[in-house]
Amino acid sequence: MNNATQLTPALEVKNITKTFTLHQQQGVAYTVLDDFSFSLNRGECLVLNGPSGQGKSTALKILYANYLPDSGEVWFHFNNHSVELYSSNTHQVVYLRENHIGYVSQFLRVIPRVSALDIVAEPLISQGFDESASRDNAAELLTRLNIPEKLWSLSPYTFSGGEQQRINIARGFIKPVPFLFLDEPTASLDEKNKQVVLELINEFKQNGTAVVGIFHDADIRQDLADKIIDL
Amino acid sequence: MSEQLYNFGYLDENSKRMIRRALLKAVALPGYQVPFAGKEMPMPYGWGTGGVQLTASIIGKKDCLKVIDQGADDTTNAVSIRNFFKRVCDVETTEETGDATVIQTRHRIPEQALTENQIMVFQVPIPEPLRYIEPSETETRKMHALKEYGVMHVKLYEDIARHGEIATSYAYPAEVNGHYIMDPSPIPKFDNPKLDNSPTLMLFGAGREKRIYAVPPYTNVKSLDFEDYPFTPQTWTRKCDLCGSEHSYLDEIVTDDKGSRLWVCSDTDFCQKNQAKQEQSNV
Amino acid sequence: MFDFNFQEIQPILKVENLNKLFGFNKGCQNINFELFPGEVLAIVGESGSGKSTLLNSLSGHEQPDSGDVIYHAKNEQDYSLYKINESERRLLMRTELGFVHQNPRDGLRLRISAGGNIGERLMAVGERHYGDIRSKGENWLEQVEINSDRIDEQPRFFSGGMQQRLQIARTLVTHPRLVFMDEPTGGLDVSVQARLLDLIRQLVQKHQLAVVLVTHDLSVARLLAHRIIVMKQSEIVETGLTDQVLDDPQHPYSQLLVSSILN
């Protein structure tokens, strides 16, 4: 990383406000984020901290355009270009997600009939990478995450929570990305696998990825955080 | 003989005029089915009412009429229609292809080459070649107008898939003048090549469905096929048992209850002429 | 990975102020959107909200009262579907566009063999080599997971799921770029639905299809679509990325839809 890139942040969040209006419940409205801002450099990790219900997940989802803010901007800066998430059209956002963002949600969304290996390899294949090379990469990651090989060809439908979560993590880490968003990725993992995930995150950081995450464990927060925002 | 109770040709002059107008349109749009106000004829549908109305509309006092059914002049249907016109027009009739100016037919085109001075009138049961696959008349009309004929090949495809060859052997669809696809009436596909570039005006009448269509003289008529399954007319490995012809359409006739069979020309006039020629040369 | 190489592309379909009403708020009105190549758009909403009317208008089957449907063709030309003549429109509909009906009986010829059904669209665009047509038929049967030795069987003897897969093969054989689907899994058992959905998902990805999909099943939209349009009483009430609309619906009606169907 050279100094020039250090000067411009990788990710800038400006004045995000998010209110949920529950039309089904007499239109009750509550504001979760009010004038939320931060900026993050390449290779840095921001940890969103705070008790549950304070908007950590909401903030993370807004970075991925999964939740729609009332106002504010989310800027993704590249070497050659900057993209503002909420003034881009949907297929531009889809492109950004498919090519530049890794996102690990709390739960794996299982696709019927698709094997664990293919679920993990899919983000690479859909970007046009060679199918068998993509599967090799997926196999490598699953090995690192201690998923027994006999499970690879099965649909994760019947897997345990911890196994499903590791499949989900593998899927999020399969492609090199400049932006990585993690929603409690280590929540249901044992110590050994937590360490693997830590290693993976650190490898991404070293490659210049800007990471934003929510972590249950205080020690992981300590290990990874370059910045902490308390919500 | 003529019974003056009827107008010449049985139909009244206005009806004939209406049919002739439809005929003009049919000739102008080769292969296109022109609707017409078909009349009730003194015979049931299926006995050639379409053809009879066309013949009645075009026949004149100097015409000489030949009527064939399955190639034969002496079957019930042929004899009845011939007698009908003899009675209502008092025109000359013949069984000789060369002498006829109007030939009404069901199932065959004569073997003897036709000329510019003759008109063929075909009796058609189902004029719409797309009917097999598309039941809607609105839709088939549109398909004809826009030349959307993919489904015609579906029928031939099904033939090959089921029988290993195009098994359609009569009413074999053909493209007329590069546009309309027509059902050439239930003639054997053996006769399809005779439609192509023929010097003779070919008129088709469907009485029940009230449609007229035509192939004018010297018009291209191309039988549908696939590149790897080209159109092929029927051929026989044998000759006619009566006249020895090797190039005519043969009918199989069972001659007794012991299974004896004869293969003879379906065109009786052609066969008899051939036999007469051979007798002469034998003398 | 630190470069952003997004190529701005032409939308494959532009819908401008489209209106088609059969009565007060019956049909669809004020419809505007763009669809991009390779993009899957789901139109969701309750029965009678105008989804199917919209689909029929978009796909060339139903002349709108007003507005424009502009298709950007393979040859880079724009075709306003209802301003070009019928012959051109029908040509596009059987080449570059495809339509998958909810009921396979509407999209198949049940008494024509599976191979004939697939081959029809090829023959309609002028293919005249039986052997080629047949081998493409076999290939497509395999692609939709029907054993190719069933090529000569008539689809009336197939199960509903197989009929639907055959309809998809028949639609895709001419390599359309834009496919319209009307509740493609509507009449099927849940177990069969999952298989068909996954098949559609794979085919859409493999052939880079743009798809407009009508469904009332939000899980179908979740699995297949990049983007969602929510319709209510003939109008679009919300549109956005699929997961955004399903996870954070804004409009009261979308919230009702999501809360009543998802658990």
Describe this structure in words.
The complex is a heterotrimer of chains A (231), B (283) and C (263). In chain A, 36% of the residues lie in helices and 25% in strands. Chain A has 8 helices and 9 strands. In chain A, helix 7 (191-206) links the parallel strand 7 (179-183) and strand 8 (210-214). In chain A, helix 4 (116-125) packs across helix 5 and helix 4 packs parallel to helix 6. Residues 1-5 of chain A have low confidence and may be disordered. Chain B is α/β, with parallel strands linked by helices and 283 residues long. Chain B has 7 helices and 12 strands. In chain B, helix 3 links the parallel strand 2 and strand 3. Chain C is an alpha/beta fold and 263 residues long. In chain C, a hairpin with a 5-residue loop joins strand 4 and strand 5 (78-80). In chain C, helix 4 packs across helix 5, helix 4 packs parallel to helix 6 and helix 5 crosses helix 6. The radius of gyration of chain C is 19 Å and the shape is globular. Chain C starts with 12 loop residues before the first strand and ends with a helix. The model of chain C has no long low-confidence stretch (mean pLDDT 93). Chain A binds chain C through residues 5, 20-24, 42, 61, 65-68, 76, 78-81, 83, 89-96, 100, 109, 111-114, 126, 176-178, 208, and chain C through 1-4, 6, 34, 36, 39, 194-195, 197-198, 201, 205, 222-223, 226-227, 240-241, 243-244, 247-248, 250-252, 255-256, 259.
Which labels suit this protein?
heterotrimer; A: 231 residues; alpha/beta; Rossmann fold; five-stranded parallel beta sheet; four-stranded antiparallel beta sheet; 8 helices; disordered N terminus; B: 283 residues; seven-stranded mixed beta sheet; three-stranded antiparallel beta sheet; 12 strands; 29% helix; globular
Q: What is the gist of this entry?
A:
The complex is a heterotrimer of chains A (231), B (283) and C (263). Chain B has 283 residues and is an alpha/beta fold.
Average pLDDT value of chain C?
93
Largest sheet of chain C: 6 strands, mixed
Overall strand count of chain A: 9
Helix content of chain C: 25-40%
Could you say which structural class the secondary elements and strand pairing of chain A correspond to? Answer: alpha/beta
- Beta-sheet strand percentage of chain C? 15-25%
CATH superfamily of chain A, by name, is P-loop containing nucleotide triphosphate hydrolases
Weakly predicted, low-confidence segments of chain C: none
Name the largest protein-protein interface in this structure.
A-C, 37 and 30 residues
Order of strands, widest sheet of chain C: 6-7-8-3-9-10
Provide a count of the helices of chain C.
10
Number of domains of chain A: 1
Largest sheet: number of strands, sense, barrel closure of chain A: 5 strands, parallel
Would you report the number of β strands of chain C?
A: 10
Distance between the termini of chain C: 38 Å
Task: Based on the coordinates given, report the CATH architecture of chain A.
Answer: 3-Layer(aba) Sandwich
Order of helices and strands of chain A: HEEEHEEHEHHHEHEHE
N-to-C order of helices and strands of chain C:
EEEHEEHEHHHHEHEHEEHH
